[in-house]
Amino acid sequence: MRASAASEIATVDRILDVAERLVQTLGFNGFSYGDVAGELRITKAALHYHFPTKGALGSRLVARYGEAFRGALAEIDAAESEARRKLARYARLHAGVLRGNRMCLCGMLAADQATLPREMRARVRAFFDANEAWLGGVLEHGRRAGELRFDGAPREQARVLLSALEGAMLVARSYGDVARFTSVAERLLAALAAD
Amino acid sequence: MRASAASEIATVDRILDVAERLVQTLGFNGFSYGDVAGELRITKAALHYHFPTKGALGSRLVARYGEAFRGALAEIDAAESEARRKLARYARLHAGVLRGNRMCLCGMLAADQATLPREMRARVRAFFDANEAWLGGVLEHGRRAGELRFDGAPREQARVLLSALEGAMLVARSYGDVARFTSVAERLLAALAAD
DNA sequence: GTCTATAGGTGGATAGAC
DNA sequence: GTCTATCCACCTATAGAC
Fold this sequence. Notes:
By secondary structure, the first copy, chain A, is an all-alpha fold. Helices cover 74% and strands 0% of the residues of chain A. In chain A, α1 (11-26) packs across α2, α4 packs antiparallel against α5 and α5 (83-98) runs antiparallel to α7 (118-144).
């Protein structure tokens, strides 16, 4: 391994980038090694050198996606202190994914759940867990601060929010209409406002 | 075509039953003619006699599912007059689908959207449209009657509800935990209560 | 790290006998 | 309406040369 110039991207990452987009648009059973290889102008055999099986590729995909998301959540925490602004940025995170007709990687894989290797399934759940935990923290803090109003446990309310946003992506994508998502997201957040 | 005894089920319907379950659990790209044929102990060629292409089978599947759902909504309208009770039964409809690890057929197909033939995509949207229209009507009526409280257009609120329920199914299925769905559904309906 | 070549299987779909 | 037989494209994955 040598030092690489800034403009170069390691083959592994280029594979992950293409595969990620394909999974998010077509589903885990809707893309093939051939699709990825063809787009990168390498052979399927070269792909297998980097990722011996499709499941291994999928696992790395979910792991990387989860890390990136956790990074984005940390950025939100660093940039915003108000709960309502944090939630608004969280929703915008998903809206960003939706542009380009992409579904949340883990929402898509949740649909393919029954056909995935064990490890991928576990990682998808871990992604949801992390999102719920973060949302739960924001909700709890926001309610304590008097910014937000809702009944019951923050963690339960977090599940409502996560489910609703994943579903809003799913449905909005059927219409190719991001506004459908943002409209739902705005209503969900407005319902939590204390004023 | 001859009169058939009550216990007999036409081959076409048995095909649709099996295919429906497979799509709801595995996704449209996660099942094959071979799977259906194997389960019914007929050959793939026999399947092609009834449904020349996979897309034709899929279209019939969505059409039938939509009709069944409309029937269920009509039943709810006939049995209940209060908006809150209608919505509760609507949520129970989805909970029933979720048992047996099934996803809403159209929610699943929404994930597979990009890989579907045009006609199937249109039928999936029609399903969502019909659900939104029915929910919008119930919400509007419920608010007028003072049973429900929410801001904005009923049709917009209907989209929130539909998205959230679809998403709740998607996420709950990852955990194999129907309670996750019912908990979210109850919170959504409680948030609409006027009291 | 990428290639050619290929294995071994399965995908959807068709032809023609019964 | 169901079968056998078959087509061809594609799938994931491996072996071995460069």
